[in-house]
Each structure stands twice: as C-alpha cells, then as structure tokens.
Amino acid sequence: MAMTAAPQGVPPAPAAVPGEPNVPKRRNVELILLGFALALGMFAYANVTEAATGTLPGNFALVGAVFGGALLACHLLIRKLAPYADPLLLPIAAMINGLGLVIIYRLDLYAQATALANKKPLPGGAAPTQAVYTVLGLAVMIGVLVLVRDHRVLQRYAYISAFAGLILIALPAVLPASISEVNGARSWIRLGGFSIQPSEFAKLLLVSFFAAYLHTKRDALTLASRRFLGVYLPRGRDMGPILVCWAVAMIILIRETDLGVSLMFFGAFVIMLYIATERTSWLIFGLLMFVGGAAAVTMVAPHVMVRVTAWLHPFSDVTNTTRQIAQSLYAYANGGLFGTGLDQGYSGLVGFAANADFILDTVGEELGLVGLTALFLAYGIFVTRGLKTALLVRDPYGKLLASGLAVVFALQVFITAGGVMRLIPLTGLPMPFLAYGGSALVANWILVALLLRISDTARRPLPPALPFTPDFAVPQAFPLNPAPSPQANQVKP
After folding, report:
1. Is the pLDDT assigned to residue 393 strictly greater than 90?
2. What is the pLDDT of residues 411-430, one digit of tens each?
3. How far apart are alpha carbons 276 and 219 in whole angstroms?
4. Cβ burial, residue 483 (10 Å; 0-12/13-18/19+)
5. In Å, what is the CA distance from 451 to each residue of 58, 148, 152, 325, 379?
6. How far apart are CA 110 and CA 183, in angstroms?
7. How do residues 118-164 score in pLDDT, each as one tens digit?
8. 10 Å Cβ neighbour count for 489?
9. What is the pLDDT of residues 52-96, one digit of tens each?
10. Across 15-24, 73-82, 386-395, least confident range
11. Cα(242)–Cα(33) distance, rounded to whole angstroms?
12. Nearest alpha-carbon partner for 105 in 151, 37, 41
C-alpha cells in the first residue's frame, strides 16, 4: 500500500519511544465523580428540606451553583497543578463533606424547632458556618498545591515540623481551663467567638517528621536482638523513640485528658514504625505500652474514668454521665437496616455535640445500616488510595509520608466511630469531613492536598532515557583514541 507523505511545512509526528509508559491522567473521571458527589449532596439537601417544610429550599439553585463552581474551580486548577494526581481523592472527600453539610443543616432544623416549642430564642445555625469552612478548606487545598510543588521539600523541615507540632499539641495544656477546656478535655483554644483545635494541624506536622525520621533510622530500627515466641525482639538501645512517643502520649492523656489525640499521636507513630521496619514486635510493644499506660492514667484522671465507666456500663446513669452513649445506641437500633429517612429520626436527643462527635448517630438512624456501610466504604476507598499512592511513589520519604497520612486518617475514623458505637471509650475526635468543626475540616483538606501532590509525583511518567551512543558517552573533545598529529610522525634531525 502506498504511503502518503506529510504535508509540506508540517513536521512529522514523533515516533513512540519503546518502553516509555503512557499513563492516563484520568481528570475526566475526576470531573464525572465530582458531578455525582454534587448531585448526591443536593438531592439530600432537597430531601431534608422537603421532609421538614413540605417544599424545596428557596436557595437550592444558589447553593448548587456556589458549591458546583467551587468544585469545578478546584478540578480545573488540579488539571494544571497536579495533572497526574489520583482522580478519586477529591470526589470522595467532596461527597462526604457535602453529606456532612446536609446532616448539620438537618440538626440545625431540629434545634430551631426545639427552641420554638420551648419558647426560647432561636439558636444560630451551624451549617452556614461549616459551608464557609468548606470553601476555605478548598482554597487552602489549592494553596498547598501551589506552594508545595515537590513533597520532598517537606523533608528538609522535619525537625521544625516536630517542634511546631509538639507546641501545637501542648499549647492547650498550658493555657487556662477557661480558654482550652470543652466538655472536660483541654484540646481547644477559644478567644472570643473564635476557636481552634490545634491538634488537627499538629498531626500533619508530626506525620511529616515521623516519615523523615524513620527514613533516616530505618536500618537501625530493623535490627533485632533475639527471638521470643516466634517474634524478633528489638534491641534495647533502639527502644528510645517509642518510649519518648509513649511518654508524650501519656502526658497528653494526663494533662489534657484527651484520649483521642493521645491514641492518634502514638498509634500513628507505632504503625508507621511497623511500615518502615516490617517488625511485628513494634506493634505488640506499642499496643501493650498504650493499654497499660491508659489503664494507669484512668485511675488518677476522673474525666477519663467517666469515659471508661460509660463505655463499660452505658445504661447505668442515663440521666447524667452515660446519657449520650445510651442515646447513641438507641439511635442505631431505631435506624435498623434502611433507616428512618432524612429528618425522620431523633438523633438530636443526643444533645451536646450531636453535630460533631456524635454526628455518626444521625447517619446510622436516618440512613440505616446500608447508609452507614456506604459511608465506611467511602472512607475505606480513600484510605486505600492513600496506601496505593505510598506503593507507587518512588522515594522512601514519600512512601512513609503517604502511608502516614492514610494511617492517621484511618485512625481518626476508627477512633471516632468506635467511640460512638461503644467499641472503645469515647474520645472526642470529629469524624473527618462529616462532623462540624472548622479546624478538622481545613486540616483534612490539607491532608487531601498532600496526598494529591504525592500521587501526582507517583503517577507522573519518568522522562524518556537518553540513547546511549559513543558520541554521547564520550564527547568529541576528549576521544578515547586520539589520532596522532602530523608533527608526531616527523623525525627530528
């Protein structure tokens, strides 16, 4: 068959380089999933308002346009800033965030109806504030992608991150209780109408430090001294890091009486230590140390003892100390398999923190076991994509950083859900992207930005290898066998 020559003036298409990977960017997949996340959130918003008032919300089109425009702007910027990033991270986070906004709005309606029935002033809605924090979190996510063009830059500031993270965790403990204490736990900073939970940002800084430290000390921490009951025990001289982290975790538990932050901080380090060394003994030592330390602290910390008592005996004092956990269990029982429907449950009876620590009760009661399972599957996919990013990225620091971010996210989900479902004692951590709280929401959007940046680096194809030729290997200016000059062949008289 005759071949047609290329038109004059048009360069021929470059030939494919053998062996060069052709990695799809999959940004269109991300756009389609973002549309699904927006549609799901708007459907739930319309459902709640119709169930409460019998009509569609008057600002339905405005709300859809604002959040649709914000998600579209983020998608377009990611196309430019991180074109090879994982296409599932942003849609999953946006879907859970949108569902959280709807549930917070539903609980606002319950609080307002209760105030009208009791002839009290109407409380301010939390949903508009959370919506502002959502837009702020999306803007911060894009800002991180603009500033951090290579995640390996963070490794240079490992010890600065550790110092800043510890300061943020310790700050509520040294402030007066009137500023830092909420419901018995000293983990906040409240000034006027502004409040912040610094531990949410400290977890990101400390994960970056853990990744850099374990990358440097991995070989030493992998060595074992002897084998006992089939487990290789670490050397005594290598126990220093885990002892230091355990001591800090116990100080947090004693001084701030915050079981959630203490468990998340220590658990993240132990799991990252196991990932770096592949030694099961570190997990065993970490579990025994934390359980033993927490049991000892329970004996001297009344607030922690109340949490443990409510966990063991949830119906022993349903009018006072165990009321919230008892109402939480009633909510799950009332939800059954398919739930009562949005705005058809009674999870608002939980009272304080119904839209924060106990927001999962509303999901369990009004969406049932099916909706709760779907939510946990979304969380599981998010964590799985983070761990897959850790497998794909090429540098060791990036592997540990991505796995650490996925681990700390998974720990927060487990600790929060386990507390309200009576699997473990209540901790006070917010459900990621779902619960009310600006600090947690913005911090989790920063976590998404870091995973997007690492996944972009991991999936980005390597530049094509330069061909090996003698001319390239040895420049002509320095030939291996230079030809003899004419003067060298002349015989001197």
Report:
1. yes
2. 999 999 998 898 888 877 88
3. 9
4. exposed
5. 37, 11, 13, 34, 15
6. 22
7. 888 878 788 999 999 999 999 999 999 999 999 999 999 999 999 99
8. 7
9. 888 888 889 999 999 999 999 999 999 999 999 999 999 999 999
10. 15-24
11. 41
12. 41
Query: Tokens for 476?
Result: 């002509």
Would you state the torsion angle of the CA atoms of residues 430, 436, 438, 441, taken in this order, to the nearest 10 degrees?
Answer: 60
If pLDDT is split at 50, 70 and 90, which confidence band does 10 have?
A: very low
Backbone angles phi, psi at 195, to 5 degrees: -140, 150
Q: How far apart are CA 192 and CA 417, in angstroms?
A: 31
Letter for the amino acid at 315? F
- Alpha-carbon distances of 192 from 185, 195, 230, 267, rounded to whole Å: 19, 8, 57, 34
Both tokens assigned to 374: 């779907």
Q: How many Å apart are CA 222 and CA 279, to the nearest integer?
A: 7
Going by their DSSP bridges, the two strands 189-191 and 231-234 should be labelled as unpaired
What span, in angstroms and rounded, lies between the C-alpha atoms of 199 and 411? 14
Residue with more model confidence, 290 or 256: 290
Paired strand residues for 186 = 181
Tokens of 464: 């094509």
Residues in CB range of 400: below 8 A, 6 or more apart: 210, 211, 214, 215, 272, 275, 276, 390
Q: How far is CA 151 from CA 143, 208, 397, 402, in A?
A: 14, 10, 9, 10
**How high is the pLDDT of residue 396?**
92
Using only C-alpha atoms, the chain has a radius of gyration, in whole angstroms, of: 28
The CA angle 212-139-123, to the nearest 5 degrees, is 115
- Residue (of 219, 225, 253) closest to 237 by Cα position: 225
As given in the structure block, the two tokens for residue 371 are 């909706």
Distance of CA 346 to the CA centre of its chain: 30
CB 288 within 8 A of CB 296: no
